[in-house]
Design brief:
This protein is α/β, with parallel strands linked by helices and about 450 residues long. Helix content is about 15%, strand content about 35%. The chain contains seven helices and 23 strands. Strand 2 (about 45-60) and strand 3 form a beta hairpin. Helix 5 (about 400-405) crosses helix 7. The chain is globular, with a radius of gyration of 25 Å. The termini are far apart.
Length: about 450
């Protein structure tokens, strides 16, 4: 009589121990980005029940720009799912009754047709269920695979599922969840109002927005990731796509360990790691000096001009041996000190705007043009970019804002008692746009108020 042993199961006459026996059941703890569910400490497989709801809702792509997102759980990316290798996952997909479209889910952690998509086609007001065994450890993307698949993904339908190895991951102090996505809108970057999806741009793979966690500024200002010197940080990073490969980098840090493509192998001492659409990576690094460390897609225009930028704010004592800070400042002008820009036509005819219109336009322009350096709260970045918050630099003469925007600024300046020595490039904005963003700054960030007109800008520009 033949005897067959299947890994993890005991059949008649087989002496292999059943190491994958399912014990009990749990309801999975799911979290919104950038939070991560706690590590799994049990040493056995269980039945893990996952409940995930599809919600179609309007949210902001950036301040002043609205978009109709399709989501797993109500935010982009969808909720983080954490299970253990060998778990039997009972998956429930629910489609909110108020939604307009059917959806499903393809989990790259699933071994089976469509990654579960063929079993979860779910109409509004319905719930579907299927089960799978988490066979392979790793960090995996999940996404909607309902036709047109690209459109569902482009509207924000993706997230990450971690299948922890049986022995768990090495202990770290902080874990964060970050997913990049590219978005294609009818209007250009920063154009205010409700912006619908644009299929032509998507087919050309020319996104208006490339963002972390579903929104420009999702990881800046008060929403910056936070850690301390001496802590070890693990980033679970995904790329929902649908079109662009991410060159993920943290400015000022080197990844001690990278699990490329979310798998089991490790690379060490890595500067930038590639993450394809529908892919992931796990990065780990120890924090040795304080400061603001900037998360970017190092296809760098995406970071500073399309939104793929976040901040990891690290507090703690300085270590001058590892990083000294500025030790010297001297003049170096082999080509002259003027900030140079290519000439361009005025972007907009200077028609009169009300103060309310200026504030609305200025808010959008600040988010698209100024926020990356001066931050969403206007407090700037220590030793790099001066604050606009309660700024004494232009308090006595508000038109200094216009001067800086239209002509640029280089060299040391003192703002609120601190010295900054960086470069502010000349901005190619129209007179109305300059007047609007200047008026917005004057009336926000704890400043005293005021109004700049396009006519003022034209005179200063000359």
């Amino acid at each position: 009589m033949s005897v067959f042993c299947i890994a993890g199961f005991v059949l008649s006459g087989c002496s292999v121990k059943n190491s994958n026996a399912i014990k009990g059941e749990e309801v999975a703890v799911l979290t919104f980005a950038p939070n991560v569910p706690p590590p799994i400490t049990r040493d056995y497989a269980t039945k893990m029940i996952v409940n995930l709801e599809v919600i179609e809702k309007e949210m902001e792509m950036m301040d002043g720009v609205k978009y109709n997102f399709w989501t797993f759980g109500g935010q982009v990316p969808g909720k983080f799912i954490r299970v253990r290798e060998g778990d039997l996952v009972e998956f429930h997909l629910k489609n909110d009754p108020s939604n307009k479209l059917p959806h499903n889910i393809d989990l790259h952690a699933v071994t089976g047709p469509g990654g579960g998509a063929v079993s979860t086609f779910t109409a509004p007001g319905h719930e579907t269920q299927f089960s799978f065994t988490a066979i392979n450890p790793g960090l995996f993307i999940y996404h909607c695979a309902t036709a047109p698949v690209g459109m569902h993904i482009a509207n924000g339908m993706y997230g990450l599922i971690l299948v922890e190895p049986r022995g768990g991951l090495p202990k770290v102090d902080k874990e964060f969840y970050v997913v990049q996505g590219d978005f294609y809108t009818k209007g250009s970057y920063g154009e205010s109002g409700e912006q619908p999806f644009n299929m032509e741009k998507a087919l050309d793979e020319k996104p208006d927005y490339v963002v972390f966690n579903g929104k420009v500024g999702a990881l800046t200002g008060d929403n910056a990731l936070k850690a301390k010197v001496g802590e070890t940080v693990r980033l679970f990073v995904g790329n929902g796509g649908p079109g662009l490969t991410s060159s993920f980098h943290v400015i000022g840090e080197i990844f001690d360990n990278v699990y490329p493509e979310g798998g089991s192998t490790q690379n060490h001492n890595v500067q930038t790691t590639l993450i394809p659409p529908g892919g992931s990576a796990i990065t780990e690094f120890k924090l040795q000096v304080p400061g603001n460390f900037i998360l970017v897609d190092h296809a760098i225009f995406r970071a500073f001009n399309k939104g793929a930028l976040g901040i990891l704010k690290v507090d703690g004592p300085e270590n001058k041996t590892i990083y000294s800070g500025q030790q010297d400042d001297r003049i170096y002008q082999p080509e002259g000190g003027a900030v140079q820009t290519m000439p361009s036509a005025d972007a907009e005819k200077a028609k009169p705007l009300t103060k309310t219109e200026k504030l609305e336009l200025g808010k959008a322009l600040f988010a698209s043009t100024c926020q990356a350096c001066h931050q969403a709260d206007g407090k700037g970045i220590e030793k790099a970019f001066p604050p606009l918050y309660k700024s004494d630099y232009f308090a006595a003469n508000p038109q200094k804002i216009v001067q800086v925007i239209t002509h640029g600024l280089s060299g040391p300046i003192t703002v609120n008692g601190k010295t900054f020595n960086s470069v502010m490039p000349k901005q190619t904005l129209s007179d109305n746009q300059v007047a609007s963003v200047a008026t917005y700054v004057l009336n926000n960030f704890g400043n005293k108020g005021g109004e700049i007109n396009a006519e003022d800008v034209a005179k200063i520009r000359k």
